[in-house]
Amino acid sequence: MRALLAFFTVLPVAAPGSSLEDAARRAYLLPLVGFLVGLPGAGLLLLAFVAPPGVAATLALGAALLAAGLHHTDGVMDVGDALMVRGSPALRQEVLKDARTGAGAVGALFVVYGPSLAALAAFAANSPVRAAVALLAGEVAARSAMLLLLVFGRPATEDSSSAYFVRVLIEGRRRAAALILALALPSLVALSLGPAALFVTLAALAATVLFALVLSRRAFEGISGDVSGATGELARAVLLVALSIVVSC
Question: Integer distance in angstroms from the first to the last C-alpha of the chain?
Fold first, then answer.
């Protein structure tokens, strides 16, 4: 677990000598990483009792992104730039590795984080406690979506960081644990928002992962670390927007 936290977060967890392979062996615990990463942001959302909801929501989302080291935000930007390229999957794969930032990256940031922030602000204006729960559900769902993508996806290249995780998750027990945690944990967190939230969570997860699998296959001929991270960020956005609509009705 320490290797997983060291790889996917900036939380002060020492994991001396750990490697990417060590993190991959514990990949089925990714939903728990999401819960831990979401705790600081959930706490900040309670500021909406005394501060403007938009301010509390902005601080909370920022805390969640920073706790993850902005790694997945970088994936959103890279995928956004790559999807703007007209050409072969091989060319788009090269763009994923390009350190330069283009208009696609800016657009992707707006599309993914704009709705997330708006949904959180709406939640916080109505109930800061519910907003905190929604953010926790969103963070757990984000890592669950990443995990499901790694379970069902195929790496675009063998040197992709996702390849380590995909190989490890082929093993029966790890695969079963991954599926159980990826589906159960976000649903349990969201359940405190009402029974409808449980179904919304499962639907948002399934739709996002399926969309990512189809898109990545067509655009990149498979998944990568960037695609996995971007899928998680998109899953958070989809779930927060859906919950803000269903729970507020």
Answer: 39
DSSP string, 115-167: HHHHHHHHHHHH-HHHHHHHHHHHHHHHHHHHHHHHHH--BSSTTSHHHHHHH
Count the neighbouring beta carbons within 10 Å of the beta carbon of residue 6: 18
SS3 4: helix
Contact criterion met (CB below 8 Å) for 4 and 34: no
CB of 235 closer than 8 Å to CB of 142: yes
pLDDT tens figures, 110-148:
999 999 999 999 999 999 999 999 999 999 999 999 999
Contact 167, 78 (CB under 8 A): no
The Cα–Cα gap between 149 and 28 comes to 12
Give the pair of three-digit tokens for residue 39. Answer: 């705790």
Burial 180-196 (b: 16+ CB within 10 A, else e): ebbbebbbebbeebeee
pLDDT tens per residue, range 22-67: 777 888 999 999 999 999 999 999 999 999 999 999 999 999 999 9
Q: Which of 232, 236, 249 is nearest to 120 (CA)?
A: 236
Residue 10 three-state SS: coil
Contact 90, 220 (CB under 8 A): no
User: Sign of dihedral through CA atoms 161, 166, 167, 172?
Assistant: positive
User: What is the Cα–Cα distance from 174 to 27, expressed in whole angstroms?
Assistant: 8
Amino acid at 226: D
